[in-house]
Amino acid sequence: MFKHSIFLRIYAGVIILVALVAVFCYLLVQIINYQRAQEYRESLTDGISYVISQGVERQLTLQQKKDWISDAADLLELPISLVDRSKVELSRSETKRIENEQAVVRYDAQSMVATLFLALPHDQKHYLYIKVNKIGERQMKALPIFILDYLIYYPGQEKEYLEKIHSHFSYPIEISSILDLGLDSEQIGRLRQDQSILLYRDSATIRGTTISIVSPMPNNPAEVLVIGPVPMFNWMPFQLAAGITLLSLFLLSLGVYGLILPLQRKTKQTIKALNQMKSGDLSTRLNVEGTDEMASLASSYNDMASHIQRLIEAQRELMRAVSHELRTPVARIRFGMEMLAEDDDYDSRLSQVDMIDKDIEALNTLIDEIMTYAKLEQGTPSLDIQSIPIADVLAQVAKETEALKTQKIIELQAPDLSIVADAERRYLHRVVQNLVGNAVRYCNERVRISGGIRPDGQAYVCVEDDGQGIPEQDRERVFEAFARLDDSRTRASGGYGLGLSIVSRIAFWFRGKVEVDRSPELGGARFIMTWPAKQKLQSKN
């Protein structure tokens, strides 16, 4: 059922698209956040790494540098050392950062350890190596010490030189009045004791939670060094969430459009075909692709267009044929009426009245045939499907034919009365009656009627004669309305060319078919109508 429903395919496709887009967006967020986290780590270390490298660079001798590095390592409680440049392989982006006086940060997600490499301005042989295996309050409170150590060389010019190195920091760093920070008495007391404090701010804005480090300025109790606020890393900031959401909607829109596009294309084709039909062009047909609802719609449209086209053609043919067929009996009736008016002989007048009566009967027969054909051709007739003994119908037609005194031999090879098939009795009787009447008209002296049910479950009725038969090239034409094949099948022999057309339409509505070939035993024509012995529809429509 799934493959036969375009709507189920669309729903399933949308679900699959949502799952794929969700997985894609998750991976995209992870990749973007990995890059953002790396940039965040680099932004945090760039400024303080520059200050530390400047502190090492101020030492005059290599031993002094090592001593300063040892003191810094003890202060930060982190491993710090000098490494040979030749032992460190840098990527192109890392080399560019070194050239810009920025730190190279390498983070190992499994061990959660970051390693920093800092360039020393006048030392082309070594990098300053820092291994960051923990970040706590001790490390954060030690950061202002390195900045103050840098500023101590510029007494009275601290703010100017702080502004100079500010470009290396991605977060604010300034000297402020202690009164401008809104600190409580406990925090102010700790600053008076030369202790650094941490300020946490939780904001509902995009910045979120931030941390500021406040450290007292030497020899100036009214001012403090403020580092920050530094925003905590946000794994899903508003910009990223909005971007991922818009990208997801865009991808889903493309996917849904791709699922809807075939439906839209087929719908446009159907609308175009209907517009052409409305304008009178019935020749357009739709391509039947697949087995879904649109394929069923296209197939139904093609069947409808073919049926309407056939009805219109049949109506035109019927009008032409009816006008032609009516002229002869009407002309004979008119001639008989004129003769009746001029003839005074009583016997002659009776003969003319008898001829007129026969012509009127012929008109009635023609009208009945036309009405039956039109009813079968123009729409689904009301069928009262019942289980009918085939032998009963064959015997009835044989008895009726013999009562006509046709001087023909009627052979009945009826099946057992227990052989039944689903059919409309009235129409099945009409089929056998028309076939037998046609056979009597064109046989030499013998007609054979038979029927039954084949091993494949198909019921059948068969009528054979010993006449001249029907040429193979004309066997399809005999089922066309008002068709006559040669001079032997003229009006003189009776009939109007509708009998076999009616048989063909009844076979169609019985979900069967009718065929004609040569009788293997009698040598004339053999007509066989087959239909399913068990019908799906067994009630009136």
From TrEMBL:
Reply yes or no: does the keyword Repeat apply: no
| One family name in Pfam for this protein | HATPase_c
State where the protein is found: Cell membrane
Enzyme class, top EC level, equals transferase
The name under which this protein is listed is histidine kinase
- What InterPro entries does the record tag this protein with? 2C_sensor_his_kinase, HAMP_dom, HATPase_C_sf, HATPase_dom, His_kinase_dom, HisK_dim/P_dom, HisK_dim/P_sf, Sig_transdc_His_kin-like_C
The membrane topology of this protein is: Multi-pass membrane protein
Occurrences of domain HAMP (ranges): 261-313
Q: Which catalysed reactions does the entry list for this protein? A: ATP + protein L-histidine = ADP + protein N-phospho-L-histidine
Query: Which UniProt keywords are present, listed alphabetically?
Result: ATP-binding, Cell membrane, Kinase, Membrane, Nucleotide-binding, Phosphoprotein, Transferase, Transmembrane, Transmembrane helix
EC nos: 2.7.13.3
* Superkingdom of source: Bacteria
Q: Which Gene3D superfamilies match?
A: 1.10.287.130, Histidine kinase-like ATPase, C-terminal domain
